[in-house]
């Protein structure tokens, strides 16, 4: 119990955290967009806003504040110097001369309002740190009541100072206090964000359109509508998905066509042995005296017809069953060829050679692929040929060749033998090569026929790595 209690507590804490996380995820999912386009644009928009906010804070919080303090300190220094001169020289002519020289040298326009009393102190507020910086500079430099007006005059900032005999109104040009309009920087940040977001929206809509078209094609294909191959477009991954969908669609259509052809040919192939059975059964009662030898021959013929039907039905079931239940695994192709060759020799076939220069591995459905090789070797044996097996790596993948020295197949007929019921000689059903191609293509490869170096036929199987 001492050991299990901490474990139970940890499991309980993890369970509570999981429930809490699920409860927190629900409101987040309600707020988030449901479409891929909306979520992608949100992923783009949030970093843009964060980046612009950081830029604004860096500008507003550092550069603009430093420059604003320096400009405010410069204006406050000129005002303090002017007040010091006015306190030092009291004559009327001196005061006019001081205010005139200050206007010429510092661009500060001074007006004297004798007898007035400053009724307000402090400062009006504008966007930016300039108002607070100027008020603080004046407060720390001048020991008198002051009022800073940023609103009344659009061209100047008025600094009103309470003097012993009146109010001194100092008009400071705004260019001496403003670095740049804050709204201009904000407009630039917002405008650039909107522009980039618009460009990203256009590009992402094109990408999402390709995904929507692919989803629509998959939906229609699932409803059984032949929409034809879709045009690959969009990003590389979306193009690959479209190409894979086209290949899947082609394989499914080919699969359905092959199964339909098999179902259409079942009645035709089974009709012949059934007709022979019907005739044999009809002839037996019509014989007046049935001799044992003749009856035995008829029974043997009927047993042969039944065996032929069983063989054809087994081929149909094998073809219709497919190989989807077996999982692909990594297989040593050399070992697989050796096993198939040994079984072929035991069945009476002749193997000339098994050539594998280097170890070859491939991801296969081993039992299904063994059926392919068995079928190819049986075809070679049935046509009286000796066989040579080989496997190697190629730039296209794994290449497996089955060569024989039999009569071969004419080049114009090589593609036709892959169709169902095309080669029913020697008791065959014409499904062997059809099943072989179906299995190989289910592995993503292909099977072709060509002339052999032994003088007969070569079956070449190419499998992807």
TrEMBL record:
Q: What is this protein called?
A: histidine kinase
User: One GO cellular component from the entry?
Assistant: plasma membrane
| Enzyme class of the recorded protein, top EC level | transferase
Q: What does the record give as EC number? A: 2.7.13.3
According to the record, the segments passing through the membrane are 36-60, 182-204
Principal cellular location given in the protein's record: membrane
The residues covered by the Histidine kinase domain are 265-465
Which InterPro entries does this entry report, sorted A to Z? Answer: 2C_sensor_his_kinase, HAMP_dom, HATPase_C_sf, HATPase_dom, His_kinase_dom, HisK_dim/P_dom, HisK_dim/P_sf, Sig_transdc_His_kin-like_C
Where does the UniProt annotation locate this protein?
Cell inner membrane
User: From what superkingdom does this record's organism come?
Assistant: Bacteria
């Amino acid at each position: 119990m001492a050991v299990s209690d901490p474990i139970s507590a940890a499991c309980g804490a993890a369970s509570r955290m999981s429930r809490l996380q699920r409860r927190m995820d629900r409101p987040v999912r309600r707020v988030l967009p449901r479409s891929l386009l909306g979520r992608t644009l949100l992923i783009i928009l949030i970093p843009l806003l964060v980046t612009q906010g950081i830029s604004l804070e860096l500008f507003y919080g550092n550069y603009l504040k430093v420059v604003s303090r320096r400009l405010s300190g410069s204006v406050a220094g000129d005002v303090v110097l002017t007040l010091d001169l006015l306190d030092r020289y009291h004559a009327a002519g001196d005061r006019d001369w001081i205010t005139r020289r200050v206007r010429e040298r510092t661009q500060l326009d001074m007006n004297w309002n004798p007898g007035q009393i400053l009724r307000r102190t402090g400062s009006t507020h504008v966007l930016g740190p300039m108002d607070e910086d100027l008020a603080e500079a004046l407060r720390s430099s001048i020991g008198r009541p002051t009022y800073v007006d940023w609103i009344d005059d659009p061209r100047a900032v008025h600094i009103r100072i309470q003097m012993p005999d009146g109010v001194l109104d100092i008009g400071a040009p705004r260019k001496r206090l403003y670095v740049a309009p804050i709204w201009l920087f904000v407009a630039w940040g917002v405008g650039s964000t909107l522009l980039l977001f618009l460009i990203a929206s256009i590009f992402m809509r094109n990408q999402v359109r390709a995904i929507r078209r692919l989803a629509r094609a998959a939906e229609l294909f699932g409803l059984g509508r032949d929409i034809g191959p879709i045009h690959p477009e969009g990003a590389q991954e979306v193009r690959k998905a479209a190409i894979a969908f086209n290949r899947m669609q082609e394989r499914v259509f080919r699969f359905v066509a092959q199964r339909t052809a098999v179902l259409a040919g079942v009645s035709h192939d089974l009709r012949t042995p059934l007709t022979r059975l019907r005739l044999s059964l009809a002839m037996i009662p019509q014989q007046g005296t049935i001799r044992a030898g003749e009856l035995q021959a008829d029974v043997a013929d009927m047993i042969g017809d039944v065996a032929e039907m069983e063989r054809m039905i087994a081929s149909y079931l094998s073809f219709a069953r497919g190989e989807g239940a077996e999982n692909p695994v990594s297989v040593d192709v050399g070992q697989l060829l050796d096993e198939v060759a040994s079984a072929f020799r035991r069945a009476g076939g002749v193997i000339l050679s098994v050539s594998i220069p280097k170890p070859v591995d491939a991801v296969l459905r081993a039992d299904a692929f063994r059926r392919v090789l068995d079928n190819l070797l049986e075809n070679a044996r049935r046509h009286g040929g000796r066989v040579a097996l080989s496997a190697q790596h190629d730039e296209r993948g794994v290449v497996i060749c089955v060569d024989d020295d039999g009569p071969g197949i004419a080049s114009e007929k090589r593609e036709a033998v892959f169709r169902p019921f095309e080669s029913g000689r020697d008791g065959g059903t014409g499904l062997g090569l059809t099943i072989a191609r179906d299995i190989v293509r289910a592995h993503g490869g292909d099977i072709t026929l060509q002339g052999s170096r032994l003088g007969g036929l070569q079956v070449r199987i190419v499998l992807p790595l």
